[in-house]
């Protein structure tokens, strides 16, 4: 993770990770090279599509949902590549299995933390619904409306302890962006290079979510990927654009960087003093106008959070089914079976 005092420093602690994967003079057959190029070109296209067209799209819930949707596609692509490589799990090096299982359990934990935070944010919906109800013409109750507005403020400003654990897990992912040395396996070299791309993009997207949910740009990660990757240029362009915009938002002093949440917060700030004052005919009209604005922004926030939560759940299931499939193959093949043991996810992992 980039250091607070030097947030723009690219992070590549172990030098070029492909030094041991594709050393100078290494040979890949035309078939393997075509498989690798197809995977990397597809990854580059996904990254290009993920780059926001406008600065205002950065950290909108719709863009964040698209980011997770892109991760789902990338993780599906790596499964297809593994199948196309025709590399039986029995031929996998123990180190590759260790990397895969360690990464997957970390991703499952991160998904759980993000789901927890999305759920916490969505619980604020109840406070806002009470505000809207208590400000309706038939049941006007400014005292209860103020209490609900205060409740919403306190709820949104509270911290989620599960995120702190998520941040430490992400630190671990970044520190393992180096790759094991691959010997005498051209297919293994292709597999590890592709898995590096998946991991780099996954860490980057997760760091964006961490920055959005934590209220701090310090959670952003700046990765430098080797120029030899066909997706390197698209990745660097996306990372630079998004990270600069998020840091700019926080430097401006805004409390939240989530666009829909910011819209609700702005509406609450305008509505609060109106509700506090005695309502005369002019203010009554202002009150109902602001109530309408709050209702629309609240609906958009709630809908966006629901869709984002569903997409994170889809990603969780993709990672989980990938683990289960590999575990099933390990049990059938018997390779490395002695090193398989129960872990905290409730399944199995290789240590």
TrEMBL record:
- Keywords from the named record: Membrane, Transmembrane, Transmembrane helix
Q: Which InterPro entries match?
A: ROH1-like
Where in or outside the cell it occurs: the entry states: Membrane
Q: How does it sit in the membrane?
A: Single-pass membrane protein
Keyword RNA-binding annotated: no
Give a single Pfam family match. ROH1-like
Under the cellular component aspect of Gene Ontology, which terms does the record hold?
membrane
Q: Which family does it belong to?
A: Belongs to the ROH1 family.
Write the protein's name. Answer: BPS1, chloroplastic-like
């Amino acid at each position: 993770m980039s250091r607070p005092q030097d947030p723009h420093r690219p992070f590549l602690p172990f030098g070029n990770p492909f030094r041991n994967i594709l050393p100078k003079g290494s040979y890949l057959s035309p078939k393997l090279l075509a498989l690798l190029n197809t995977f990397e070109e597809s990854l580059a296209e996904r990254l290009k599509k993920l780059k926001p067209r406008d600065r205002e799209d950065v950290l909108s819930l719709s863009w964040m949902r698209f980011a997770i949707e892109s991760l789902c596609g990338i993780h599906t692509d790596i499964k297809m590549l593994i199948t196309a490589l025709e590399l039986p799990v029995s031929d996998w090096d123990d180190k590759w299995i260790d990397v895969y299982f360690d990464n997957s359990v970390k991703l499952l934990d991160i998904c759980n933390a993000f789901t927890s935070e999305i759920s916490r944010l969505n619980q604020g919906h109840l406070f806002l619904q009470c505000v809207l109800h208590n400000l309706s013409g038939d049941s006007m109750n400014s005292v209860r409306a103020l209490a609900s507005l205060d409740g919403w403020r306190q709820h949104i400003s509270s911290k989620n302890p599960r995120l702190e654990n998520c941040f430490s897990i992400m630190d671990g992912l970044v520190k393992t962006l180096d790759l094991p040395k691959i010997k005498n396996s051209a297919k293994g070299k292709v597999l590890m290079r592709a898995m590096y791309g998946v991991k780099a993009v996954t860490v980057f997207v997760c760091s964006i979510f961490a920055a959005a949910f934590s209220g701090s740009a310090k959670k952003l990660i700046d990765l430098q990927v080797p120029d030899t990757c066909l997706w390197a240029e698209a990745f660097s362009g996306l990372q630079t654009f998004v990270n600069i915009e998020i840091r700019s938002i926080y430097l401006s002093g805004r409390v939240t960087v989530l666009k829909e949440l910011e819209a609700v917060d702005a509406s609450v700030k305008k509505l609060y003093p109106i509700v506090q004052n005695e309502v005369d005919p002019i203010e009554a009209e202002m009150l109902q106008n602001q109530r309408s604005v709050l209702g629309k922004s609240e609906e958009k926030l709630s809908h966006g959070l629901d869709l984002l939560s569903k997409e994170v759940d889809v990603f969780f299931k993709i990672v989980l089914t990938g683990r289960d499939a590999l575990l099933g193959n390990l049990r059938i093949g018997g390779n490395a079976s002695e090193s398989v043991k129960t872990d905290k996810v409730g399944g199995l992992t290789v240590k």
